[in-house]
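Form P-L/3: holo structure prediction, ligand coenzyme A.
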Amino acid sequence: MVKAGLEDIVATDSTICFLDGKEGRLLYQGYDIHDLAEHSTFEEVVYLLWFGRLPNKGELETINRELRVNRRLPDDVVKMMKQMPKKALPMEVLRTVVSMLSMYDPDGDDHGREAAIRKATRLTAQMPTIVAYWDNIRNDKEVLAPLEDCNLAANFLYMLNHKKPDEVSTRSLDIALILHADHELNASTFAARVAAGTETDLHSAVTAAIGTLKGPLHGGANQEVIKMLLKISEPKDAEMFIKKQLDEHKKIMGFGHRVYRTDDPRASHLRKMSEELGKRMGDTKWFEMSRTIEETVFREKHLYANVDFYSASVYYMLGIPVDLFTPIFAMSRMSGWAAHILEQLANNRLIRPRAEYVGPTNAKYESVEKR
Ligand SMILES: CC(C)(COP(=O)(O)OP(=O)(O)OC[C@H]1O[C@@H](n2cnc3c(N)ncnc32)[C@H](O)[C@@H]1OP(=O)(O)O)[C@@H](O)C(=O)NCCC(=O)NCCS
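OUTPUT (holo model):
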């Protein structure tokens, strides 16, 4: 029998992301995630993932400019968003609008590398607009034209909240975007590569990836984490809640990982951010509760927190609505999906694995009356 979930199967060579689950190391194109989280910007990381090296000054200026001037959505798309049911989940809207944007893309059915980079640039710039606009539209608020004088994180918070964010909020989100940008052959990236391998268009591959990220075992976990924290409500009740969940054989969202057998290197930054944001707000309740949960899960199950665990309290403290947590993950992971799509296309062969057939081989058809 094949090991379920393709565990430990190496499906491709790649230079984009190195992931050492035993040592807890994560590198983008050879650069340590800790170095990038401390010194880099999301825009610089986008360039690094797509082009395999850090940009020089001119190249950084160009990608910054391209990611700023491409933020607008076509008027028809905004009109269509206004027709969508108000109860639609932000991830449903994001998946649908990204798919819709392929019909408006100036590069049309040009699927060459240069066109794919331009399409990826436009989608990376537009996804925050889609997410912020949807939150505005469903709350009967007007939508604001994107700014062009600030980075992606600041513009997103501005469009979402209708006011310019402070520096700490902007940098916190910028770091969160860096940390979520890529993670080797996770489920959504694999979905993107499988789609790209058929030589379909970039929008289709990204649409497949968004649909895959939406699941609670993948990107949807951060929303489940905050729902759990809100349900627990007080740090003193956290330990008992978790023990009860584990006694009932329920999974604790934000814990465990297919690859990491030690601390997720992304979680350490988010843990720190959660604590700092809490202190700044004069309310460390969510951080304290998270720490208690982390200690309890480790003691009881020897499981480590993953990227989704602390990103939940960070986004919550930044005032971001709960169901936008996974779309924010998508806004960032767009950069990694595009990097993998470009890598797939550079040396493409259709991805078509086999299944070990374990079913019957001599079934005889009987008419419906006899069954
Ligand atoms: C991430 C995840 C899907 C990895 O799954 P996987 O590699 O298929 O591992 P499994 O689900 O088979 O788990 C292996 C064992 O650890 C346990 N386990 C894994 N994650 C757990 C969690 N979050 N809470 C409690 N137990 C957990 C499983 O119950 C299983 O125990 P068993 O062998 O006694 O049955 C899984 O850890 C999970 O569901 N985590 C919660 C969702 C989440 O945070 N996802 C975001 C990932 S970044």
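COMMENT: The pocket of coenzyme A is lined by residues 5, 217, 221, 251-258, 301, 303, 306-308 (CB under 6 Å).
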